[in-house]
Amino acid sequence: MSPTLHSNSDQALLGRRERKQAQTVQHLAECAWNLFEQIGYEQVTMEAIANAADVARGTLYKHFPVKEALIAYRFRQDQIKHQATVQNAALATPNIFDAFLCILRMEAAYAERNRDYIAPYVFYRLNNAQENANPFENDSFAPLALELIRQGQVDGVISMEQEAQSLAEKLIFLRLGTMLRWLRKPDTVLADMYTEMLHFFLHGAEGRTRKIP
Length: 213
Prior knowledge:
By secondary structure, this protein is mainly α. The chain has ten helices and no strands. It has helices at residues 3-39, 46-53, 57-63, 67-91, 96-113, 115-127, 135-138, 141-155, 164-184, 190-203.
């Protein structure tokens, strides 16, 4: 057998394995989500998920070591699915404030629909801070925020005193803090809290009649 044929055969085998693994991961995630929706997230055990998916528990733990990882997978898939729609809607707005507001309101609507899952998801991400250290790799909001801030600097509506990436990182942490406040206050509306946060980010806390020394 020639080296080329051997290489092609290995690549085909690897491709089949990757597809099979992707199918297994998707099947596990769908079975888990169906259980979460049917009987509630807190009541579902990893054993119940493995039984529903008809796989050994070892197979489940290989791909998803904890329940929260299944939520993270589902949320990431939804982000990827809707990323283009969110971006197009934001870029169609007349100014940077409306662009950010569009993005954050769409995110807030999603969070409100999935409120029961947001707390375990957020704390899972925080507990795996080292793995999730770079938000620009695994959070669809981050690169879009960076793009908008860079454009805002070019247009002269955002200060050039700090680098765009530094400003984007600060906005990401403000967003996280706002979501944590929302989780602590069940009667609040996340979209309203995001609007308040956005005003603070774009306009700051400094008074308009007196400057901070």
